[in-house]
């Protein structure tokens, strides 16, 4: 989506504590260190079809149920303007959820929001779209089979993504290139596990002409001997203008990227 459609003895105790937080132990690492191994995708505790968008305010714990689109939410392609499975009001938290196929337009955050231990098995149009807030947080979870983008940042502010796994994707994060109202946006990626597919993919796409800033730390890239995964792609709106680290827009160094 490129423009707004509308304005898991001590070890056992530790593991149990992480589960209570909704984070998988395989996705939890020391801050600043790359994930140790490929993410273990969770099994669903059940499945629930969703025929109309579920509105969330406050905190919703999905209990690791798989939600998938039905009826009007059966889209799984790249058509613009699809409705989401979940729509989060400002300040809402969604946790312990699996979004299956069809995934429609995933999740919309209408303001500040938190996505905790959310897994997308087959990304539809986008996994999540962020707009209208100042700080958005994604912690734990993962996404795969994203024909285009995973996270679409249409509103202002900063998106923080940590302890996240992504595979079979084109772009993990994109700052909107053609929204009717544009902003300077920021994204922080920390402890991200990336599985390459042998074709070109981007971790972030940012608009340098808008002053966007991407900070990458603890990135582990698997299965990418050909270096097809681009850590930071620079755009002037929708025109590609370069890649690689610098001191202004793409903030990372070679030590922040580990290839395995």
Automatic annotation (TrEMBL):
> Which UniProt keywords are present, listed alphabetically?
Calcium, Lyase, Secreted, Signal
Q: Where is the protein situated, by its record's location annotation?
A: Secreted
A single GO molecular-function term is: lyase activity
Does Lyase count among this protein's keywords?
yes
Entry annotated with the keyword Hydrolase: no
* Primary localisation category: secreted
**Reactions listed under catalytic activity:** Eliminative cleavage of (1->4)-alpha-D-galacturonan to give oligosaccharides with 4-deoxy-alpha-D-galact-4-enuronosyl groups at their non-reducing ends
- Which cofactors are named for this entry? Ca(2+)
Q: What is its EC number?
A: 4.2.2.2
Range of residues in the leader sequence: 1-38
Q: What is its biological role?
A: Catalyzes the depolymerization of both polygalacturonate and pectins of methyl esterification degree from 22 to 89%, with an endo mode of action. In contrast to the majority of pectate lyases, displays high activity on highly methylated pectins.
What's the family?
Belongs to the polysaccharide lyase 3 family.
Q: What is this protein called?
A: Pectate lyase
**Source taxonomy lineage?**
Bacteria, Bacillati, Actinomycetota, Actinomycetes, Kitasatosporales
